Amino acid sequence: MTATMTDTPPPAAPKTDTAPSGSGRTLGRVLLIAAGALILVAAVRVLTGANQLTSAGQVSAALGLAVPIGLAGLAGLWSERSGVVNIGLEGMMILGTFGAGWIGWQHSPWLGLLCGICFGVLGGLVHAVATVTFGVDHIVSGVAINLLALGATQYLAKLFFAEGKAAEAGGNPKQSPPAESLPNVDVPGLSDALHSVEQHHWFLVSDLAGILGGLVTDLSVVTLIAVLLFVGSWWVLWRTAFGLRLRSCGENPVAAESLGVNVYKYKYAAVAVSGGLAGLGGAFLALVTSHIYLEGQTGGRGYIGLAAMIFGNWRPGGLAMGAGLFGYSDALQLRNGGETVHALLLLLVVLLAVLAGWKLYRKALWQGVASAVTAVLVLVWYLFTDEVPSDFVGATPYVVTLLVLSLSAQRLRMPKADGMRYRKGQGK
After folding, report:
1. Per-position DSSP letters for 214-274, written without gaps between them
2. What is the chain's pLDDT, residue by residue, as a tens digit (428 residues)?
3. Rounded distance, CA 392 to CA 381, Å?
4. Computed from CA positions of residues 130, 133, 136, 139, in that sequence, does the dihedral angle turn out positive or negative?
5. What CA–CA distance (Å, rounded) separates 317 from 24?
6. Crossing angle of helices 89-106/109-128, nearest 10°?
7. Can you tell me the distance from the alpha carbon of 237 to that of 247, in angstroms, rounded to the nearest whole number?
């Protein structure tokens, strides 16, 4: 006798995981954390008199500095959710800056923006060919792309910007001629009203007005595009069948292939999108921040974007918070110097004291004692000084990033197959 399978129903289509996972944070919890942070910063502003902490100018500058970092982090998220570690984000951003500067000054900034994305996609595809098709170690491939992108753009800049019309327009071997500006967006009426409330320096009310004013005043159109990309990435990766299959390639590619998923195709698509997002981050630096391509203008933001992605636990919301934190601390030290950064020491004392209490409550004796001792030392530093030395001011964003990463490291969970070599046919 032979058993037949004609009556067996076909396998059901994969469902998207609409329920929040255990590693994510609910909206209510996020809003509660944000409200607590705002109250704490407002209290520090009142106690120290450092009104720049929540000013509209500070928030606007922080947003501009956070966008390229956030785009780099979002690029890393797409790649690593498919199982491909992308250390080459810095190189893809460099390619984006050159492509945007090269086309932007010759034609239009919009075409420059598109060219920056395309150059980034090209870098992503090179990384995909090396890691997915040929099985090259992901870290080795990423480092190679960073080196190749830097060398290629230096050579091309000397070739295209050092003579002829480009030189006459202001170009040289290290930078392109200036490109036209992309449009900025304001909310008529609202910006002025919020600025008026901010000037009263009321506790919490003026702080909230300053933050909202920075978010609606003089926004680059690329910033709005970046916000839409964050929302769109969350929806695609967590609310569609395509996103579920892509994430399955980063969790268990063998099981995904056994269910009919073309793992290579999804990895290629993810790394290409990753390169495009990194290229857009580079184009932002070239066309919004400075209006020119400039050698070395990425300044390690690709690596910082990876740190923001890790802080965000490989999720768009947490990534945005990490990028915003780095952008805020960077803007603080660039705009206001040692006196305002000095006010952050008091904020750090409070955070360390809360952390010490929490660790002691959880019976983590050594961590609690270490946090308490550090809080006392920082408090002594704050009480016996008036400002932070300039050498420390420049390191503020990096110190903040390291502190946040160290405090959040215990709650992180990367995709299980992230960085692992995968050969086609393993799931058959």
Report:
1. HHHSSEEHHHHHHHHHHHHHHHHHHHSHHHHHHHHHHH-HHHHHHTT--HHHHHHHHHHHH
2. 334 343 444 444 444 443 334 344 566 777 787 888 889 888 888 888 888 888 888 899 999 999 999 999 999 999 999 999 999 999 999 999 999 999 999 999 999 999 999 999 999 999 999 999 999 999 999 999 999 999 999 999 999 998 889 899 888 999 999 999 899 888 777 888 888 898 888 988 999 999 998 888 888 999 999 999 999 999 999 999 999 999 999 999 999 999 999 999 999 999 999 999 999 999 999 999 989 999 999 988 999 999 889 888 899 988 998 899 888 888 887 776 667 778 888 888 888 888 889 888 888 888 889 889 988 998 998 888 888 777 777 777 777 767 766 666 556 788 999 988 888 776 55
3. 13
4. positive
5. 9
6. 150
7. 7
Q: What angle do CA 298, 302, 308 make, to 5 degrees?
A: 130
Contact 311, 318 (CB under 8 A): yes
Tokens of 314: 């490989």
Identify any residues that bridge with 175 across adjacent strands, giving them in sequence order: 172, 294
- End-to-end Cα, the chain, rounded Å: 28
Q: Is the dihedral of CA 130, 314, 226, 299 positive or negative?
A: negative
Sign of CA dihedral 175, 180, 182, 185: positive
Contact 62, 213 (CB under 8 A): no
What's the angle, vertex CA 417, arms to CA 413 and CA 420, rounded to 5?
130
**Which two tokens mark 285?**
């630096």
> Using CA atoms, how far apart are residues 312 and 233, in angstroms rounded to an integer?
14
Cα dihedral 229, 400, 340, 48 sign = positive
Instruction: Give me 87's structure tokens.
Output: 């250390």
Kindly state the tokens that stand for 95.
């390619």
**For the stretch 384-417, what's the b/e string if a residue is b when 16 or more beta carbons lie within 10 angstroms of its beta carbon?**
eeeebeeeebeebbeebbeebeeeeeeeeeebeb
Cβ within 8 Å of residue 377, ≥6 positions away? none
